[in-house]
Amino acid sequence: MIKQNVKIHGDTPSIWFIFSAEKLLVPHAQPGPIIDTWNNLGFAHAYLDQVVQVGEHKGQTCYLVDMGNEQVVQEGMQLAHLRTLLQHDELEVFAVAARAWQVALFLRTHRFCGQCGSTMQKIDWEMAMHCHRCHHRCYPRISPCIIVAIRHEDKILLAQGKPQKERNMFSTLAGFVESGETLEQAVHREVFEEVGVAVKNLRYISSQPWPFPHSLMVGFLADLDCGEIKVDGHEIIEAHWFKYDELPNIPPKFSIAGQLIEQTIKEITQTKN
Ligand SMILES: [Zn+2]
């Protein structure tokens, strides 16, 4: 168990994230702000040894309790996968829960030192696990991942991997950045590997943490330089150029993929006018 000194202020409202295995305790039914129901999870005080402070949300302290594989039963609440929060369209709520989940996962997977095998301890002044024997220190893992919307005249390149095919959806291309690689190199490499085309004129747009399990999506727009679409057949099964006003089923706007597509449509319509 991870022991540390957390001072819990009983009088001030706080937000509790209770994780059990891969799931989070959430209210049975909407409506009602999900945050309010999390406020009432003061019962988790009993697990003081396991409480970890994970930042703030609108002036309220966020606490995480990881129950491991222990089942949690709480009236009016159920255990659900983090992804279900995405259905409520409350990206802000999803973001704070996602942060808590990533910390929980980090603590779970760093109980022992990867260098000498000793038990690691959480340090108080920053989010890190430290080995007192060999002084190896670990921070929460963040995996940068590029995501890119490619434009050619009034068309956008959208692709389908297996997961998108199952959801009957086409999305932008994405892939993990490799060791020693710049973000720009990753974009050029991934695009060429997955669909066989070269791109130019890369523009950074925005980023989005994506906690499945610990990606940081770095979003770009790009233009086609040259080449014909030729899918790799592994990560990408299908890819096409879609006219901006005849798009297939695409990711929702709260996702960075949705935002990049939206931005590309905006640029196409602006050049048309
Ligand atoms: Zn060590």
From TrEMBL:
<comment type="similarity">
    <text>Belongs to the Nudix hydrolase family. NudC subfamily.</text>
</comment>
<dbReference type="InterPro" id="IPR049734">
    <property type="entry name" value="NudC-like_C"/>
</dbReference>
<dbReference type="Pfam" id="PF09297">
    <property type="entry name" value="Zn_ribbon_NUD"/>
</dbReference>
<keyword id="KW-0460">Magnesium</keyword>
<keyword id="KW-0520">NAD</keyword>
<dbReference type="Pfam" id="PF09296">
    <property type="entry name" value="NUDIX-like"/>
</dbReference>
<feature type="domain" description="Nudix hydrolase">
    <location>
        <begin position="140"/>
        <end position="264"/>
    </location>
</feature>
<dbReference type="GO" id="GO:0019677">
    <property type="term" value="P:NAD+ catabolic process"/>
</dbReference>
<dbReference type="InterPro" id="IPR050241">
    <property type="entry name" value="NAD-cap_RNA_hydrolase_NudC"/>
</dbReference>
<dbReference type="GO" id="GO:0006742">
    <property type="term" value="P:NADP+ catabolic process"/>
</dbReference>
<dbReference type="GO" id="GO:0046872">
    <property type="term" value="F:metal ion binding"/>
</dbReference>
<dbReference type="GO" id="GO:0110153">
    <property type="term" value="F:RNA NAD-cap (NMN-forming) hydrolase activity"/>
</dbReference>
<protein>
    <recommendedName>
        <fullName>NAD(+) diphosphatase</fullName>
        <ecNumber>3.6.1.22</ecNumber>
    </recommendedName>
</protein>
<keyword id="KW-0378">Hydrolase</keyword>
<dbReference type="InterPro" id="IPR015797">
    <property type="entry name" value="NUDIX_hydrolase-like_dom_sf"/>
</dbReference>
<dbReference type="InterPro" id="IPR000086">
    <property type="entry name" value="NUDIX_hydrolase_dom"/>
</dbReference>
<dbReference type="Pfam" id="PF00293">
    <property type="entry name" value="NUDIX"/>
</dbReference>
<dbReference type="InterPro" id="IPR015375">
    <property type="entry name" value="NADH_PPase-like_N"/>
</dbReference>
<keyword id="KW-0479">Metal-binding</keyword>
<dbReference type="InterPro" id="IPR015376">
    <property type="entry name" value="Znr_NADH_PPase"/>
</dbReference>
<dbReference type="GO" id="GO:0035529">
    <property type="term" value="F:NADH pyrophosphatase activity"/>
</dbReference>
<dbReference type="GO" id="GO:0005829">
    <property type="term" value="C:cytosol"/>
</dbReference>
<dbReference type="InterPro" id="IPR020084">
    <property type="entry name" value="NUDIX_hydrolase_CS"/>
</dbReference>
